[in-house]
Amino acid sequence: MKNCKQSPQKNFVEFCSNIDSSRVCECKSTNLSCISPKEWLTCQLGVWKFSYSKQDIRDKKVHPATFPLSLPKKFISLMTHENALVIDPFVGSGTTMLASKELNRNCVGFDLQQEYIDLSNDRLRQETLFSTDSQQLAICDDSRNISDYFKTNIIDLIITSPPYANLLNRKRTNKSRRNRKNEQLHKIEQYSQDPRDLGTLEIERFTEEFGHIFSQLLPLMKTKSHCVINVPDYWMDNKRYTLHINVVNIMREIGFELRNTIIWDKTNLVNSIGIFGYPSNYITMGTTFEYLLDFWKPE
Question: What is the pLDDT of residues 217-272, one digit of tens each?
Fold first, then answer.
């Protein structure tokens, strides 16, 4: 898998600096978004479910970890107006960009792997049903360099699902699955072995590097703009790793404010769950739910 270069690319810097994310709607300046009261009401519950559609990528050979298109669409609709600027620092298969295009939002995504950048841009080109004035682009670069592309106080929303520390960087044992001998058995599904990849890091180092990345993103965000991060906790080496707590603590430390914690109930998406830990070690399956952590940039 081809890694990207380690320096910002001038033509993309020019593209990002020329994005006009000014509002095109007639909403009041205090309105968070353009959604109706009825739509707002559906967002009040603290447990959300999403379903995959035909547009989604489910093949782990294409990308090992994707979220449904409906997930970023809900947050983008709730937290931005049309023509807003959305950023995904770990864009992966490009789902956030696809959601932005359908909702007429500008979006720039970053990833270390050229393969995923090509996949993201290909998906955008194939989406011909939606013709908008907004712009979307996936850039092959380290998310540590995002501050080189944008001026301050320009981003309306950050939404992303980062690598979950070193969760995927090990051989799959499939202990929690009834069908243990499926094609994932003994596979390492990590995105890359690039030393810059957060998915190669132990949780303590991951937290440190994660904080470094988002401390550089904070000045780029508009005041009271939101940052949504999708993370799970996970079980490894007979121990529960509370990744969401690490993320909350480091985000608060660098200046973000936690506004909401939403549980992504994935029970409608999970198949072939076995009796994990039975009968001597009770463990809740991390694959059945994840956290959607909603932060904002305070005044």
Answer: 999 999 999 999 999 998 878 888 899 999 999 999 999 999 999 999 999 988 76
Distance of CA 27 to the CA centre of its chain: 27
Boundaries of domain holding 76: 45-296
Torsion angle of alpha carbons 251, 257, 263, 266, nearest 10°?
-50
Closest CA to 292 of 222, 235, 257, 244: 244
| 108 token code pair | 């720039």
Q: What is the CATH number of the domain that holds 70?
A: 3.40.50.150
**How would you classify residue 288: left for phi > 0, otherwise alpha for psi between -120 and 50, otherwise beta?**
alpha
Query: Which of 57, 222, 72, 24 lies closest to 123 in space, CA to CA?
Result: 57
Within a domain: 40: no
Alpha-carbon distances, residue 26 vs 29, 45, 135 (angstroms): 9, 28, 21
d(C-alpha 188, C-alpha 123), whole Å? 25
**Residue 223: its H or E element:** strand 221-231
Is this prediction's pTM over 0.90? Answer: no
> What does DSSP say about strands 289-296 and 85-88: parallel, antiparallel, or unpaired?
unpaired
Domain count, the chain: 1
Is residue 280 included in any domain, yes or no? yes
Tell me the per-residue pLDDT of 158-202, one tens digit each, with 9 for 90 and over: 999 998 865 654 555 555 554 555 555 545 455 566 777 888 888
Which of 201, 178, 200 minimizes the C-alpha distance to 189? 200
38 in a structural domain: no
